[in-house]
Amino acid sequence: MIYYFKNVRVKKMNKSLKINAILNTVRMSLKIIFPLITFPYVARILGTQRLGQINYVQSIINYMVLIADLGISTYAVRECAKIRSNKEKTEMFCNEIFSINIITTIITYILFYMGILFIYSLHQYRKLLLIMSISVMFNAIGSDWINSVFEDFFYTTIRSLFIQIFNLVCLFIFVHKENDIYIYAVLLSLNTILMGVINFVYCRRYVHLKFVIPKHVWNHIKAMMVFFANTVAVTLYCDSDTIMLGTMCDAYYVGLYAVAVKIYTVFKNIGAAVIVVTIPRLANYYQEDTDKWKNLIIQIVEVFTLFLPPLVTGIFVLARPIIIFLGGNQYLQAMPALKILSLSLLVALYSGIFTNCINITQNKEKINLVATICAATINILLNIFIIPVMQHNGAAITTLIAEITVVIVCCCLNKDIWQIIMSKSYILIILLQAVIGCFIIVIIHRIVMFFFDSIIFEVVFTVLSSILAYFVILILFRNKYVMNLINKFRNPLC
To answer: What is the pTM for the complete model shown?
Structure first.
C-alpha cells in the first residue's frame, strides 16, 4: 500500500511540464473566456455606471483577499514543492499553513467590517461589499495552492470548466436588467464559494486539512512577510488605478476602464498561467540541477519572445473592434486605454518571468519587494496628478510606467537575469523574427481595413492572415520551435 502511494506520487510529480502548462493555460483561458462571453452581456445590461460600481467594489475585495492571504500562496507553493515527496512533512506543513490562513482571514474580516462602519465613502457600496466579501473565507478554505504544489492541473481545469458553465447558465437566467446588479454580485461570489468547497474535499487525496496550532508560526510568517509585502505592492500598482479612478472621478470612467482592463487581464492571466506552472519545477531544478534550471528559463524567455510581441501588436491594431464587441459603441472612449495597456502587457509578462521564474526560485524575493515597492510608489504618485486630467487613459499610462519600473529594478539588482537570458544568442534571432511578424500584422490590418468595413471581417481576416503569415516567416527562418513542431507532426511516434 505504501509502495503504491509512493509510486503514484512519483508519477504525479514527473508529469510533463508542457502538459501542465497547456492544462493551466486551458484553465486560465476558461476562466477568462467565459467572462468574455458574459462580459458583453453584463456591460450592456448593467450600463457603464453600474459596471463601474461592480469593478470598484471588486478592487476593494481584492485588497481584502490580499490581506487574508498574507503571501501564503506563493510561499507555500515554493516551500512545499521542496518536501512534497515526504508525506509526513507535507501533511504537517499544509495544516500549519491552512491554519495560519484561517486566522489571517478572520482578522481581515474584522478590519473589513470596521472599514465599512467608519469610512463614509464606502457606505453607498455597503450592500455590494457585504455580498462580494463572502467569497474571501472560501478562498482560504479552498487552499488552491495545494493543487499547484502537486501539479494537479487536470483537476483544476475540469473544475473550472464546470463552475464556469454553471455560472454562465445562472447569469442568463437571473440577470436581465440594471437593478440585477446584486444578483450579479452573488454570482461572482458563488464562483469562489463553489471552488473553495470542492477544493477542500478534493485536497484530501493529498493531505487531510485540519485546523491545528502552528508550531512554526513565526518562522512561516517571517518568511511569508516578504511575499506579502511584495503582493501588497503589486496589488497597489495593479488595483490602485481603479480605486483612485473611482474616488477621484465618476464611476462612469471606472466602467470605461473596466472594459480595457478586462481585455488586458485576459491575456495577462493566460501568460501568467504558463509562468505559474513552471515555479514548482524551477524551484526543484534550482535545488538539484542548475543547468536544467537555466535551460528552462531560456526556453520560457524564448517562447514568450516568439509569441508575445505579435500578440500585443494584434491587440493594439484591433483595439476598436475588440472594444465594440465587448461593450458596444458606448465604451469606445476606452480604446486609447486599451492600446496603452497592450504595451503594458508586453512589459508585465516579461516582468512576471523575472520576478517569479528567476528571482523567487533563486530565493531572491527581496529584489521583487524592492521592485514592486518602487513601482507602487511611482504609480500612486503619478495617479494623483494624471488621473484628474486624463481619467481612465491616465490610469493606463501609470500602469505601463509601473510595469516598466519593475523590469528596470529587477535587471539592475539581479544581473544574473541578463547572464541567463543572453547566454544563448538564439534569443536575438527570435526577437528579430517577432519584430518582422509585428510589421507584417500592421500591414495586413491596413490592407484588410481598405477592403472591408465590417468589424467581424476586420478581426477574422486580420487574425487568420496574420497567423498564417507569421507561421510562414518562422518556417523561412527555420525557427527551432516551429521546426520541432512540424517534425512531430511528420513523425508522431518519435
So the answer is: 0.69
The C-alpha cell 470605461 sits at 256
> In the predicted model, is pLDDT for residue 395 greater than 80?
yes
The Cα-based distances of 405 to 267, 372, 379, 401 in angstroms read 20, 8, 10, 6
Mean pLDDT of 65-74: 79
Residue 277 class from Cβ within 10 Å (0-12 exposed, 13-18 middle, 19+ buried)?
buried
* Cβ-based burial of 448 (10 A; exposed 0-12, middle 13-18, buried ≥19): buried
Per-residue buried b or exposed e for 16-46, using 16+ beta carbons within 10 Å of the residue's own CB: ebeebbbbbbbbbbbbbebbeebbbebbebb
Longest dimension (CA), the chain: 69
Length of the chain equals 494
Flag whether pLDDT at 493 surpasses 70: no
| Rounded distance between C-alpha atoms, residue 296 and residue 27, angstroms | 22
- Going from the C-alpha of 195 to that of each of 38, 65, 143, 147, 357, the distances in angstroms are 19, 15, 10, 12, 27
Count CB atoms within 10 A of the CB of residue 153. Answer: 24
Cell 495552492: give the residue: 145
- Residue pair 337/257 in contact (Cβ under 8 Å)? The answer is yes
Where is 368: in which H helix or E strand?
helix 365-413
The CA distance from 435 to 371, in Å, is 28
Find cell 500500500 and name the residue. Answer: 1
Q: 280-314 as b/e, with b when 16 or more CB fall inside 10 Å? A: bbbbbbbeeeeeebbebbbebbbebbbbbbbbbbb
pLDDT, tens digit, 9 for 90 and up, residues 409-467: 888 887 777 777 766 657 788 888 889 989 999 999 888 888 777 778 888 888 888 88
Q: Residue 77: is its pLDDT beyond 70? A: yes
Residue pair 132/186 in contact by the 8 Å Cβ criterion: no
- Residue partners of 2: CB distance under 8 A and separation at least 6: none
* 15 φ/ψ sector (left φ>0, alpha ψ -120 to 50, else beta): beta
- Quote the strand ranges of 225-328, DSSP E: none
